[in-house]
Amino acid sequence: MKKRLATLVLLFVSIAAFGQGEEEGNGVDPAKFLQTIESTTRVAGLNSARKHNNEFSIRPIRDEDVMYSIRLWSKMNFNEKLNSSWNARESRVTEILIEGIRAYYKAKNEALDQVVGITPYKTLESGAENFVEDNILLEEEFDRNLSDYSTQQGNYDESQRVRDRTAWKVKDGGIYENYSNARLDSLIDADHASKAGAKPLDPANKGDLDVLLLEEDLVFDRNQSLAKWDLVSITLVAPPKASVDGSEREIVRVKYQELKNYIDKVYAESNKGKAYWYNPKNPRNHELNFAHAFDLRLFSTYITKFQNSDDENIQTLYGKSDYDYSIIEQAMKKRFELLEKMHNLWEY
């Protein structure tokens, strides 16, 4: 009798302890147990698959799988022979980009609820780093950025710059008095262009729009032991001949996500008749669209900036003048350094 009583007491204590352990999550429920683990290795939680390294990536990977990453900015010039397929007379990537932006404005003017086309954002040159609603370009701003300021009446006379700044500060009751020189210069240039009859840049004209600025991450995925290029944004750049002072200027910046989606849409709807990468060895072959060509990296670029502590570009870091060939040499050197680093990480 006593043995039976002792057995019942032990059974009751065991059931109570099991219930208490289940309530506290001490190892009974595997999910709860994993979530309570605290260690120096920080074991990936159950929700880690939804935590991506970059929300703007078209193929995001888990943040825990990123062993190394660096952001790079590089220019793609269609005047290079390797890039001529992107600016062929039959199919131009700049035409698709501008067409997508026009589709966005058309949808906005028609008050459509869904996002259509490609959203145009202010550029990094203007200080807009994030893809937020406040940085979306208005249609009139986009048209102004897409203007050719080199008109038939001649370029702006830079010797008049100081005088015109003073005149603008007292103009209209002094509303521009506290404007910075950069903002005043933009007003002066826009006013000169409007009076001189500035015309819009046309992607159909070879040379009007022949430079793209690519912003991308070089990521080493330790899960696959593979280095990956992750394209984030593309900026359309106006050539030096279209500016008053003879320098390049950024027109508009777009998410690569949206550009890819628009390319795929146009390519499919046209039955491979638009948005295709021109194959110089087999012009009849339209099997690659521009998005596929970006994935295959069928282009040539040179680095203009890489992620660094002072946020400096190649020219300010290494250049001695505007036409210093050492800038190109340093860009090539940096690319080779990154390739070597990727190789060493793969061996690691």
Taking all residues together, what is the mean pLDDT?
82
Largest sheet: 5 strands, antiparallel
SSE string, helices as H and strands as E: HHEHHEHHEEEEHHEHH
Strand content: 5-15%
Brief summary of the model shown:
The protein is an alpha+beta fold. The chain has 10 helices and 7 strands. The chain is globular.
Spell out the blueprint of helices and strands.
Layout: H1 2-24, H2 30-35, E1 66-77, H3 93-109, H4 139-145, E2 147-148, H5 161-169, H6 181-196, E3 199-200, E4 211-221, E5 226-238, E6 249-255, H7 256-269, H8 290-296, E7 302-306, H9 314-318, H10 326-347
Antiparallel strand pairs: 1-4, 1-7, 2-3, 4-5, 5-6
Description:
There is one protein chain. It is built from 10 helices and 7 strands. It is α+β, with helices and mostly antiparallel strands and 348 residues long. The strands form 2 sheets. Strands 6-5-4-1-7 form a 5-stranded antiparallel sheet. Strands 2-3 form a two-stranded antiparallel sheet. Mean pLDDT is 82; it is low at 18-27 and 37-49.
